[in-house]
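Weekly sync, protein design subgroup
Attendees: M.S., D.O., the rotation student, P.L. (late)

Item 1: inverse folding check
M.S. brought a backbone from last month's batch and wanted to see whether the design step gives back something sensible before we order anything. D.O. pointed out we never logged the input encoding, so this time it goes straight into the notes. Structure tokens as presented (411 positions):
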């Protein structure tokens, strides 16, 4: 790809709008507009620029899933919840809802819906029939790469950051709102950690700057567009402009796909459930070989501890009584079968007993902004049931396994 030339630089001007960078990359001119994600002025500025007729294409800092959520807020209601659990996406959906809860709190406090400038770009480009390019990386991929990139001892801090957005009923601080104006919901949620951790900053911000530059290179080959308006958060302006100013690969798809890859699970973690199953079954066999009474004692403790902890966890999630009973029975068995989890069984029964209604999907985004709403809404409660049963079964497996080991070693 040909070298770029920086043709204009403008700092933020409170009277005229956000910061801009205009770059000539080969035959294509890019105007990078740094927007504030909680700002009516940014939305108006985006509309005015698109309506000016100066641009023949628009690129925005959205991925397919975020675009779908913005264009169709009820998109989750059109998904099959059972398939979400089957595909192992329950945790990711719960994380997305937690992010949405933080976003909704900002909207209620500021009176402005975060992402208004992206919605303005969608509507204005559609009205003028301009091509629209989605250039950001999928939010799920970003969350996964964050999770895998940070040391295991920092992961609790990440989860607590998400959880805090749900549990806290305090007004969002002015500092948080200012950070959101310079970045996005992800950056605002994790900014406390990103500023101090390069392992978090890289997948959260730097990789996305590079990714969006590569997407532009892919979607804007020489001669396709004359002048492209690129609508991004102001926090991405400097990094993305830096990547465009330097030569990009002739075939950017390969590098872009590498930035989409998520590390495969460690062989140790993949083998661990099978190893635990083998150890527990071996413990039962050793117990029965010593005497029948010991064998049945170990089996009884396994079923009691695993079943009670899993059932108690689903009870805390206010699961249906039949869901709790099914989890108590299923958890000790699923813990010995790594191909199916107690959470999957619990969620399946809960969906059968309390299938979410249309109003649950309609009010989901608002309900999850407060803690009790997660239990009131049938969609979010089913997610809680899944997660609770999974965690309860995991705790039961370790505690019961240690009890078995202790009984055998003690004898």
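Designed sequence read out in the meeting:
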């Amino acid at each position: 790809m040909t070298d770029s030339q920086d043709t204009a630089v403008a700092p933020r001007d409170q009277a005229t709008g956000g910061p801009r960078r205009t770059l000539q990359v080969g035959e294509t001119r890019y105007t990078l507009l740094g927007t504030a994600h909680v700002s009516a002025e940014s939305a108006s500025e985006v509309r005015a620029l698109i309506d000016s007729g100066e641009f023949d294409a628009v690129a925005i800092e959205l991925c397919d899933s975020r675009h779908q959520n913005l264009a169709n807020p009820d998109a989750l209601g059109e998904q099959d919840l059972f398939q979400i659990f089957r595909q192992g996406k329950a945790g990711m959906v719960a994380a997305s809802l937690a992010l949405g809860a933080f976003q909704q709190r900002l909207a209620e406090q500021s009176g402005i819906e975060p992402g208004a400038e992206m919605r303005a770009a969608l509507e204005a480009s559609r009205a003028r029939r301009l091509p629209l390019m989605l250039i950001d990386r999928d939010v799920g991929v970003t969350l996964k790469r964050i999770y895998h990139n940070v040391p295991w001892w920092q992961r609790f801090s990440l989860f607590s950051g998400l959880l805090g957005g749900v549990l806290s009923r305090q007004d969002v601080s002015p500092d948080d709102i200012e950070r959101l104006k310079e970045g996005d919901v992800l950056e605002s949620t994790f900014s406390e950690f990103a500023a101090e951790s390069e392992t978090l900053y890289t997948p959260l911000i730097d990789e996305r700057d590079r990714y969006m530059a590569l997407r532009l290179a892919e979607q804007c080959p020489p001669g396709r567009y004359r002048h492209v308006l690129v609508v991004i958060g102001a926090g991405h302006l400097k990094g993305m402009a830096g990547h465009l100013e330097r030569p990009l690969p002739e075939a950017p798809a390969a590098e872009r796909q590498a930035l989409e890859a998520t590390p495969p699970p460690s062989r140790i973690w993949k083998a661990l459930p099978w190893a635990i199953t083998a150890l527990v079954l071996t413990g039962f066999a050793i117990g029965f070989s010593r005497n029948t009474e010991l064998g049945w004692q170990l089996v009884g403790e396994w079923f009691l501890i695993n079943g009670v902890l899993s059932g108690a966890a689903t009870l805390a999630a206010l699961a249906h009584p039949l869901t709790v009973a099914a989890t108590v029975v299923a958890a000790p068995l699923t813990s010995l079968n790594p191909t199916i989890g107690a959470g999957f069984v619990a969620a399946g029964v809960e969906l059968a007993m309390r299938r979410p209604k249309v109003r649950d999907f309609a009010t989901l985004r608002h309900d999850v902004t407060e803690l009790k709403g997660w239990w009131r809404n049938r969609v979010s409660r089913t997610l809680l049931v899944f997660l609770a049963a999974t965690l309860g079964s995991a705790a039961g497996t370790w505690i019961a396994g240690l009890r078995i080991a202790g009984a055998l070693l003690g004898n």
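Discussion: The radius of gyration is 25 Å. Confidence is low (pLDDT under 50) at residues 7-16.
Action: P.L. to compare against the previous round before Friday.
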